[in-house]
Automatic annotation (TrEMBL):
<dbReference type="GO" id="GO:0016020">
    <property type="term" value="C:membrane"/>
</dbReference>
<dbReference type="GO" id="GO:0010181">
    <property type="term" value="F:FMN binding"/>
</dbReference>
<dbReference type="GO" id="GO:0003955">
    <property type="term" value="F:NAD(P)H dehydrogenase (quinone) activity"/>
</dbReference>
<dbReference type="InterPro" id="IPR008254">
    <property type="entry name" value="Flavodoxin/NO_synth"/>
</dbReference>
<dbReference type="InterPro" id="IPR005025">
    <property type="entry name" value="FMN_Rdtase-like_dom"/>
</dbReference>
<dbReference type="InterPro" id="IPR029039">
    <property type="entry name" value="Flavoprotein-like_sf"/>
</dbReference>
<dbReference type="Pfam" id="PF03358">
    <property type="entry name" value="FMN_red"/>
</dbReference>
<feature type="domain" description="Flavodoxin-like">
    <location>
        <begin position="4"/>
        <end position="194"/>
    </location>
</feature>
<protein>
    <submittedName>
        <fullName>Flavodoxin family protein</fullName>
    </submittedName>
</protein>
Length: 213
């Protein structure tokens, strides 16, 4: 039973919707799952027009979704990371969190973990793919194993999908506007992470047993 951490930052709740779908799918696939949020920064930058939605979402998750810690990353065999699009990059709280992983990533304690990324942005071709690839850059520095969606399942060919790097939704800057195609894609992505994490974890255990023998 692999251990999966779904780690995300969400401002208005769209990435949160994807994260919940990923966590649910991973649990259904037999994994132990932790749904964890990256907290906002003290001086948060808010997309104009979303102020009320940002405040409402922060209140909704404050006491229901725990904040992520480095111990959660060490616990996990597989990690799904979610971020909104910000100028084609991950949101600032996600970047700060990635910076904070140096004490465990530089000694190699995140090496060989299975990692995948998902995102949400306001417009088509508005930076979803570059945001995912930027997250992949950090995963490479961790020495972790990137699991991309690819073009490997029927769900990825639905009209609202198609991104091979990870699930990316187009929300038109409206809270609660994640398309069902995107929910299905991130569920597929989570099951894929569970499957690969299961194989990697079992393989490492077999190697350790062989060496010990």
């Amino acid at each position: 039973m692999p251990r999966i951490a779904v780690v995300y930052y969400s401002s208005t709740g769209n990435v949160h919707m994807l994260a919940e779908a990923a966590a649910g799918a991973a649990e259904e696939a037999g994994a132990q799952v932790r749904l964890l949020r990256i907290p906002p920064l003290p001086a948060e930058t808010v997309v104009p027009g979303t102020e009320d939605a940002v405040a409402a979402h922060a209140e909704a998750v404050r006491d229901t979704v725990p904040e992520v810690s480095l111990d959660d990353l060490l616990w996990a065999d597989g990690i799904l990371i979610g971020s909104p699009v910000r100028f084609g990059l991950p949101a600032a709280p996600v970047s700060v969190f990635l910076d904070s992983t140096a004490p465990v990533s530089i000694p190699g304690r995140l090496a060989d973990k299975v990692v995948s990324a998902f995102t949400s942005g306001s417009a088509p071709h508005g930076g979803q793919e570059t945001t995912l690839l930027a997250l992949h850059n950090a995963v490479c520095h961790w020495g972790s194993l990137i699991v991309a969606n690819g073009s490997s399942d029927e769900v990825l060919f639905r009209p609202e999908n198609g991104n091979p790097y990870g699930t990316g939704s187009v929300t038109r800057n409206r809270p609660g506007n994640v398309h069902e195609d995107n929910v299905a894609a991130v569920a597929f992505q989570a099951r894929r992470v569970v499957e690969v994490a299961t194989v990697v974890t079992a393989g490492k255990a077999a190697v350790e047993q062989a060496v010990a023998a």
